[in-house]
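Rather than argue in generalities, we have chosen a single entry, letters for residues, whole numbers for local backbone shapes, without further comment.
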Amino acid sequence: MRPRSRPGYGLFQLLVVVALIALVLGMMIPALVKSQIEAARQQKANNLKQLGLAVHNYASTYASKLPPGVDDKHFSVLFHLLPYIEQEALYKAVDKTVECDDKANAKARSTRVKTFLSPSDPLEEKDSVAGTNYFAMAGSKASIGDNNGLFCRDNKYNIGNIPDGSSNTVFFVEMLRGDGGKKAESVQRQHVRLKAGELKTLKVTDGVKDFENDKNIAADRGSSWIDGRFLRAMTNGTRGANDKRPDVDCGGEGGLAGVRFLGDGTFVGMGDGSVHWITPKLSFTTWQLVCQADDGMVIANDW
């Protein structure tokens, strides 16, 4: 008895199947990418909302006082908020009697905190320190000591006496971290570092020639969430959104900084806990107004 032959698929049928699979994948992938982008946006907004709520909870604990922008041991706002974002164990593990970058705090300093990191920044973390994409706003001036925002060194406001109102004043802004590079490749990742004494004579044009000549280059923006010095976990509103000029750090005491982001915009956390989306179209004048706590001006329509 002869065995019955089984019908097989011809080349045409296989091509049809492959085409159908490709069509389905072509329809699914954009939807998947879109959902991932939306999930990242939600996560970023939630991070800023958590930080805003943490500031208010801190103020409720300390008689309406805001956490220090940077304290005498250089600990950041983010460090002082740890107990209010379910990180009390990490807070207690830090030796607060020594500097934030002392070797006694090496383990705590290298602990990554998910709330401090943006899912939209593809930069990989280093092992020795843990960074942040969320920077406390010192104000619209260069110095972190003499400034007009809510998280400068000598902040004089509490949660109930912000002159411009909490809804009109920036708490935190989301930005890209530096990539640790030694070459001036992109103002998105590298900046210029000058000495602290040069802050006194700093001009808005400073840093441009240095960057063009690959001189005094640093790339540690946001490299340590525990460190409240300038461009570690603190920034200011002295340059605009994705300004073409480089940021300038004067020994951690202040400098010039723009809002650095990928894509079409980034999030800003306001004092009332709300989250605002900004784009490169935002005027520099408006940006400076919302970075200040006491300008008394009406915010423009582009906000």
Q: What stands out?
A: Residues 17-291 form one domain.
